[in-house]
């Protein structure tokens, strides 16, 4: 569970799955990657494939597709216009036939649709995946895409995005599974030129399909901020969920909800109470604490209060419980990869509870040296994930280490939730290294307290020698 520590260091992180096994995903009637993209195993379940069907929403039509027909619908009878040698290696500006846009329906991606049509003369295919952002955020996406000028919306539903194993952080949405099928079709994203996400998206492009061309409007257009984007949306009759009075930049998935921009750009400003959406104000939380028991097997959470749950259901449940008690609010100034500092406020109730549970159980099942090495690697792991280097061999090697040492981290943790705080109330594990018959202040036969005298003399010998030298002894 050390990978979970990366939660606190990653902004706008989106989810996928990680597993150690690397068999190819090739099964009938499912959406999978080709052999060239087998590195996407790191996004998949340990020994299972991504399940479910893709859905294609054509404007005015709805198609349930299988056998990669969803992707083929995007590609059917469409080829990218030829690009001159002078245009290669830089942001494209000219005539393209079709561009696939990572689409959320928010302000940035909504205005990108008409901008791409105007500046590249292309059809825009919007791609959206259910990564736990909630039904409200996905409501009416097809209509929004149509109103913005998209030719179609490809939607990957929850059963396709979420596998049966525990989700670990990744920095791109599952639409990257389309990269191989897209061949050289240009792709576009709404990441700002000042942020980390642009690096994360494009490093993944390099790793999975280095020949893809990327259109990054925030690095090209004349729009200089979110107020300009709102004006552009009004001019083009694009429906957007923000106004100049409510202009926070938000990103939501199953792990968290982030808030940036508006008054948060000044670190001296306290976040407004009505900004939060997943968690109640700790002052308004229940006056009585709630106890929750997390079951963990080999370092992975599997149950809540004795009920086995799938990873997505478990995290959703803990988001609900933790949010009710004001758990998981983080207000931080971070160092962006591009060099500047930025301020963001995050709500991650479920992640905070899981992190606390895993950490506490490891205190029972891991020895001191192992925990120290693990903690040092966790920091490096977080740095790699934050910087978008998910496909770095070092990250894969650390995963193997973490999987090995947490094999015995099995048991249950009871946590007390009260007005924004999480504290441990009880720990149990069949692999516990804690021995009451050794640790008790009462007499025991395994540990003889008299033995400590010799240990202290030997352990402190270097200090005694130095002191003797200083005193001339």
Automatic annotation (TrEMBL):
It comes from the Eukaryota. Its EC number is 6.3.4.5. Residues 98-155, 180-239 form the Arginosuccinate synthase-like N-terminal domain. InterPro entries: Arginosuc_syn_C (IPR048268), Arginosuc_syn_N (IPR048267), Arginosuc_synth (IPR001518), Arginosuc_synth_CS (IPR018223), Arginosuc_synth_type_1_subfam (IPR023434), AS_cat/multimer_dom_body (IPR024074), Rossmann-like_a/b/a_fold (IPR014729). One of its GO terms (molecular function) is ATP binding. Keywords: Amino-acid biosynthesis, Arginine biosynthesis, ATP-binding, Ligase, Nucleotide-binding. Pathway: Amino-acid biosynthesis; L-arginine biosynthesis; L-arginine from L-ornithine and carbamoyl phosphate: step 2/3. SUPFAM superfamilies: Adenine nucleotide alpha hydrolases-like, Argininosuccinate synthetase, C-terminal domain. Residues 248-465 form the Arginosuccinate synthase C-terminal domain. GO terms for biological process: argininosuccinate metabolic process; L-arginine biosynthetic process; urea cycle. It is an enzyme of class 6 (ligase). Transmembrane segments: none annotated. One of its GO terms (cellular component) is cytoplasm. Homotetramer. This is argininosuccinate synthase. It comes from Nyssa sinensis.
């Amino acid at each position: 569970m050390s990978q979970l520590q990366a939660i606190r260091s990653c902004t706008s992180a989106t989810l996928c799955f990680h597993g150690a096994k690397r068999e190819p995903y090739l099964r009938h009637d499912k959406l999978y990657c080709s052999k060239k993209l087998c590195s996407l195993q790191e996004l998949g379940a340990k020994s299972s494939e991504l399940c479910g069907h893709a859905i294609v929403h054509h404007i005015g039509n709805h198609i349930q597709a299988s056998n990669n027909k969803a992707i083929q619908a995007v590609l059917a009878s469409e080829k990218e216009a030829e690009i001159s040698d002078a245009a290669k290696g830089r942001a494209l500006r000219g005539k393209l036939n079709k561009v696939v846009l990572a689409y959320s329906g928010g302000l940035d991606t909504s205005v990108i649709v008409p901008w791409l049509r105007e500046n590249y003369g292309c059809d825009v295919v919007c791609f959206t995946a259910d990564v736990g952002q909630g039904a409200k955020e996905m409501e009416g996406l097809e209509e929004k895409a149509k109103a913005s000028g998209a030719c179609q919306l490809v939607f990957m539903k929850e059963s396709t995005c979420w596998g049966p194993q525990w989700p670990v952080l990744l920095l791109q949405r599952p639409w990257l599974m389309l990269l191989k099928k897209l061949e050289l079709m240009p792709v576009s994203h709404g990441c700002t030129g000042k942020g980390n996400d642009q690096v994360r998206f494009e490093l993944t492009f390099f790793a999975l399909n280095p020949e893809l061309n990327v259109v990054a409007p925030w690095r090209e257009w004349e729009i200089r901020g979110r107020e300009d984007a709102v004006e552009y949306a009004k001019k083009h009759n694009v429906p957007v969920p923000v106004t100049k009075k409510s202009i926070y930049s938000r990103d939501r998935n199953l792990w968290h909800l982030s808030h940036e921009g508006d008054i948060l750009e000044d670190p001296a400003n306290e976040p407004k109470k009505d900004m939060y959406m997943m968690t109640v104000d700790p002052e308004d939380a229940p006056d009585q604490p709630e106890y929750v028991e997390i079951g963990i097997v080999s370092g992975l959470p599997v149950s809540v209060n004795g009920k086995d749950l799938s990873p997505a259901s478990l995290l959703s449940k803990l988001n609900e419980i933790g949010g009710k008690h004001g758990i998981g609010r983080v207000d931080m100034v971070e160092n962006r990869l591009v060099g500047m500092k930025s301020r963001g406020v995050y709500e991650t109730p479920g992640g905070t509870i899981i992190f606390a549970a895993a950490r506490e159980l490891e205190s029972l099942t891991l020895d001191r040296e192992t925990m120290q090495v693990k903690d040092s690697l966790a920091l490096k792991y977080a740095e790699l994930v934050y910087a978008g280097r998910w496909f770095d061999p070092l990250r894969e090697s650390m995963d193997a280490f973490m999987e090995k040492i947490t094999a015995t981290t099995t048991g249950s943790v009871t946590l007390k939730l009260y007005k924004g705080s999480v504290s441990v109330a009880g720990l149990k594990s069949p692999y516990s290294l804690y021995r009451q018959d050794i640790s008790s202040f009462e007499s025991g036969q395994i540990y003889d307290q008299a033995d400590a005298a010799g240990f202290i003399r030997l352990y402190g010998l270097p200090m005694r020698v130095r002191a003797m030298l200083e005193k001339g002894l």
